[in-house]
Amino acid sequence: MLTFRNTEYQCPMELTLELIGGKWKSLILWHLGENILRFSELKKALPKITQKMLTQQLRELEQDGLVKRFVYTQVPPKVEYSLTHAGRTILPILTTMCQWGLDYVAAPDPMKACVPASGSLSGICRE
């Protein structure tokens, strides 16, 4: 059992997916891994996301300590988003996920391409 912010998780993977799971969070982190971006630049990089959803996801990532929001005191207002140190630590995992996607698509039979070795995950999420 793992507790984070008054929520109990059965496994570290459950917590990880809570923090970076969903359709957009990993993509937002991926784009911020390359550059500090303004909201409009993120929206342009993710054209299918709604403004409301992008705002919500950025707020959650900021609350979870993965993204930093910097507001410049100028007119018109300027806000930039960047990864925190904790956010940067997820980049190698996202890079691996990206490579997995490339390997999966390139495999002659994608359904058999990425089967983990027997027992390779044993003990990670066991009580």
Task: Write up this protein.
This protein is an alpha+beta fold. It has one domain: Winged helix-like DNA-binding domain superfamily/Winged helix DNA-binding domain (Arc Repressor Mutant, subunit A), CATH 1.10.10.10. The protein has 7 helices and 5 strands, in the order ββααβααββααα. A hairpin with a 2-residue loop joins strand 1 and strand 2. The model has no long low-confidence stretch (mean pLDDT 87). This is Transcriptional regulator, HxlR family. It holds the Pfam family HxlR.
Give keywords:
Arc Repressor Mutant, subunit A; two-stranded antiparallel ribbon; 7 helices; 48% helix; ArsR-like_HTH; DNA-binding; WH-like_DNA-bd_sf; DNA binding; HTH_HxlR
Short description:
The chain is α+β, with helices and mostly antiparallel strands. It has seven helices and five strands, in the order E-E-H-H-E-H-H-E-E-H-H-H. A three-stranded antiparallel beta sheet has the order 3-5-4.
CATH topology: Arc Repressor Mutant, subunit A
CATH class reads Mainly Alpha
- The number of domains: 1
Helical residues, percent: 40-55%
Counting helices, strands and paired strands, the structural category is alpha+beta
Topology as a string of helices (H) and strands (E): EEHHEHHEEHHH
The gyration radius over C-alpha positions equals: 17 Å
How many DSSP helices? 7
Percent in strands: 15-25%
The main pleated sheet reads as: 3 strands, antiparallel
The N- and C-terminal alpha carbons lie at a distance of: 7 Å
- Tell me, rounded to a whole number, the average pLDDT: 87
Give the name of the CATH superfamily. Winged helix-like DNA-binding domain superfamily/Winged helix DNA-binding domain
Number of strands: 5
What is the general shape?
globular
Low-confidence stretches: none
